[in-house]
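Tip: read the tokens left to right.
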């Protein structure tokens, strides 16, 4: 096993967590890596000495993307609530109780209190957000056309996320050979070699894309608000851990489509509601400007523009055991990006869109990390709502 180091150069501290995330995709020759802030180095272990030069070049390329030049990442804190909380290893405790069972990289099964808490969060979204905005329920498929993702510019911003969907060729010989080999020797990836049809679908990496493709060519006279829940997929390599970053996760969204004033006003109201939720449940959190994890050479330009425009804000909950916070809710303003892409009109102009989104498993993990697994010891409002939900009563 070989080891290499690469200087961090001028990467600002605000970028380090995002650089660390991106390093998971630098090279498959890298077996592990870490950022050494004290010595300003990226340290990596490789599969072989032969990969050293190539790995150094790829790590250097990523570092260059995150080096602070004329653009920064302006941070605006809209709300913050602090609490003294003991470190508690919720992941270990959930595994021991069998309330979480990993079933593959970034895939889990939830049960017990973890599953019930997740369903409470969805129910609270229904009670406080769906009701407020009179959101119309839509049901989306878990897969999405690659053409749609292309039109949403997902491939040019987040290519690393994609879990593509494919099927065996529609050929009796191919199907028979595949079946027979599986029967004789069991399944393996080698069975797919040369037998797969062209890929035209992917597992949806986000919920709201379906909303826009399904409204293509619509001409709206009144604003629309829709809500949906979707099992999403994002491949994130070595970043998959605990419930904080899953490959298969549940996203709930409320989407606003209409004129700019409607979307801006609705988004602001949703932000008021999420802050009140955090206050009611006494969550240790911060609600602040943020940016998407763009995996592009022009990362700093895109990220800085998004923050300057406050196009993305996140509610981040503290995970005391890990001494970090994780994003559990985002508020997003898209302007006319999707209105133009899918020819959705409001009057004679492209429709403006925005959305708010919950990562449900992350909520579960952060809450249990803050307050433990015994619901009797949770903050009053959270405990009361959980108890009523468990009994099938209104919140």
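Filled-in amino acids:
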């Amino acid at each position: 096993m070989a080891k290499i180091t690469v200087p961090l150069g001028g990467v600002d501290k605000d970028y380090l967590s995002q650089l660390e995330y991106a390093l998971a995709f630098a090279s498959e020759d890298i077996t592990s890596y870490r950022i050494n802030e004290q010595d300003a180095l990226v340290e990596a272990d490789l599969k072989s000495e032969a990969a050293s030069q190539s790995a150094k070049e790829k790590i250097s390329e990523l570092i260059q993307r995150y080096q602070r030049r004329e653009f920064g990442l302006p941070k605006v804190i809209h709300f913050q609530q602090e609490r003294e909380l003991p470190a508690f290893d919720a992941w270990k405790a959930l595994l021991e109780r069998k309330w979480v069972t990993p079933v593959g990289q970034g895939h889990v099964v939830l049960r017990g209190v973890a599953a019930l808490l997740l369903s409470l969060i969805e129910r609270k979204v229904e009670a406080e957000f769906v009701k407020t905005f009179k959101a119309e329920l839509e049901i989306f498929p878990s897969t999405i056309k690659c053409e749609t993702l292309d039109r949403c510019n997902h491939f040019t911003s987040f290519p690393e996320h994609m879990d593509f969907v494919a099927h065996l060729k529609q050929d009796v010989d191919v199907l028979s050979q595949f079946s027979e080999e599986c029967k004789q020797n069991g399944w393996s990836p080698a069975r797919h070699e040369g037998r797969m049809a062209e890929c035209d679908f992917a597992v949806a990496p986000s919920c709201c894309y379906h909303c826009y493709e399904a409204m293509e060519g619509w001409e709206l006279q009144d604003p629309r608000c829709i809500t949906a829940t979707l099992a999403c997929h994002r491949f994130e390599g070595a970043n998959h851990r605990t419930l904080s970053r899953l490959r298969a996760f549940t996203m709930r969204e409320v989407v606003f489509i209409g004129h700019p004033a409607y979307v801006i006003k609705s988004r602001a109201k949703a932000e008021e509601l999420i802050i009140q939720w955090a206050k009611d449940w006494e969550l240790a959190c911060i609600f602040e400007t943020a940016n998407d994890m763009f995996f592009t050479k022009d990362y700093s330009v895109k990220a800085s523009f998004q923050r300057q425009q406050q196009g993305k804000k996140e509610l981040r909950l503290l995970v005391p055991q890990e001494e970090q916070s994780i994003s559990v809710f985002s508020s997003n303003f898209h302007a006319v990006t999707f209105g133009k892409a899918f020819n959705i009109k409001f009057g004679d102009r492209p429709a403006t869109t925005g959305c708010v989104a919950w990562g449900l498993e992350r909520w579960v993990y952060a809450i249990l990390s803050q307050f433990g697994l015994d619901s009797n010891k949770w903050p009053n409002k959270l405990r009361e709502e959980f108890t009523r939900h468990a009994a099938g009563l209104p919140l």
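The longest strand covers residues 324-335. The chain is about 35% helix and 25% strand.
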